[in-house]
Specification:
By secondary structure, the chain is mainly alpha-helical. Among the domains are: about 1-30 and about 35-145; about 290-395, Alpha Horseshoe (Serine Threonine Protein Phosphatase 5, Tetratricopeptide repeat), CATH 1.25.40. The protein is built from 23 helices and no strands. Helix 5 packs antiparallel against helix 6. The protein is globular and about 70 Å long.
Length: about 400
């Protein structure tokens, strides 16, 4: 499961090359601007500076709280970011508010804020338009973006959605070479590059990319999860290694996507469902912090819970954000609810750009088989296995 949650959540407000164009009062001369690292360590000095009168640093403090969410998986920091932005004005504040909206999956709100932020909101608008299914408009917005890590990463994702894995990997290499304001930014794009290489069948290149990410940020969750997918694609010993690795990840960062990966690997190994029982609690925690998790929860319910509930969630998600991601969720929910013909129609819609996502292809293949379209089903499943489904052992076994 890929939360695009994705690209926007990984970079933070600094990547949009934000600028001040009025709005905040001049800073008191007696309070120096802290030296920032682009990490969660910036919270304390920024908070002290804001409390001492540097109101112009409130967007930077909010961005540091968003970094805390990425580091800890604790969505309560979203509320602190929101408080830090209260009353702040200007392009930087609007752009940071857009980042917060993206993190909460409020894509329409993020688009409005990105528009108000002007040039500082370019990448926010791109992310929001992608999640709203407005892919051509997102591409046009990217034409105005500066050629930096954030822009290259978004080019990569758009190419991936169109099934161009070679072009996606090339753009992600450019993103890594461009560098970012913090090591985590580069580690994230290297982890994404590793996943693209894995889906291209380039195992050694994937391991190198994941290893480079971990060299920059030891224990980086996305890279550890990528290595776990490589291990899980092997024999029983590889599956055991993947389970051990994912346990370490979830102990530090118990996000639903990693809990699901661990729980499904444990199911394949015959170790029960206790981990999966934690997923709903974590998603409730996300929702209580204002995060819309309808798409992710719909797929989870379709796989491990109530298909009828999955359909309800997926329909609501698609109405809010009609993307390929939500179309896949709705198609799979309908298939699991005993309506494979309707599910197949939505699966085709999810794949209309040509995505080679192995889970989406598997969903389409199983829907086609259940709908009596055997040739189409087998073709989709072959594509799924060719592009990395074996890294998801529970789905692969099914």
């Amino acid at each position: 499961m890929r939360l695009l949650a994705l690209i926007a959540l990984a970079f933070g407000a600094g990547l949009a090359a934000l600028s001040f164009e009025g709005g905040e009062a001049p800073a008191p001369a007696r309070v120096q601007r802290p030296v920032l690292t682009g990490t969660a360590d910036d919270v304390a000095p920024l908070r002290r500076a804001v409390e001492a009168g540097r109101r112009d640093l409130r967007p930077a403090l909010a961005a540091a709280y968003l970094q805390r969410v990425r580091d800890t998986g604790d969505p309560s920091f979203y509320a602190r970011a929101e408080d830090a932005l209260r009353g702040a004005r200007g392009p930087e504040a609007l752009a940071t508010a857009g980042e917060l909206a993206l993190a909460r999956h409020d894509f329409r709100g993020a688009l409005r804020l990105g528009r108000r932020a002007g040039a500082a909101g370019t990448l926010i608008r791109v992310d929001a338009l992608v999640e709203l299914g407005e892919y051509r408009r997102a591409e046009r917005e990217l034409l105005d973006a500066k050629p930096n890590l954030g822009a290259y990463a978004r080019v990569s994702y758009l190419r991936e959605l169109h099934g161009d894995l070679d072009g996606a990997a090339e753009a992600m290499r450019f993103a890594a070479a461009a560098g970012g304001p913090a090591a985590e930014n580069v580690a994230y794009v290297l982890a994404q590059l590793g996943e693209l290489e894995r889906r291209r069948g380039r195992v050694r290149a994937a391991r190198r990319a994941f290893g480079r990410a971990l060299a920059l940020v030891p224990g980086f969750a996305a890279a550890e999860a990528g290595l776990a997918r490589l291990e899980a694609a092997g024999d029983a010993a590889g599956l055991d290694a993947a389970i051990a690795r994912l346990r370490r990840v979830t102990e530090r960062l118990p996000l639903p996507e990693y809990l699901i990966a661990l729980g499904e690997a444990e199911l394949v190994a015959g170790r029960g469902t206790r981990t999966l029982e934690l997923v709903a609690a974590q998603q409730r925690l996300q929702r209580s912090a204002g995060v819309d998790v309808d798409v992710e929860l719909a797929v989870f319910e379709a796989d491990h819970g109530s298909p009828a509930r999955a359909v309800e969630l997926a329909r609501r998600a698609y109405a809010d954000a009609p993307s390929a991601r939500s179309a896949d969720a709705l198609g799979w929910a309908l298939t699991r609810a005993g309506k494979p013909r309707a599910g197949l129609r939505w699966a085709r819609r999810a794949l209309r750009l040509g995505s080679l996502d192995p889970l989406w292809r598997a969903h389409a293949g199983l829907a086609a088989l259940e709908a009596g379209r055997e040739r189409e089903g087998r073709r989709q499943l072959r594509i799924a296995f060719r592009h990395g489904l074996s890294g998801y052992p529970w789905q692969a076994r099914r």
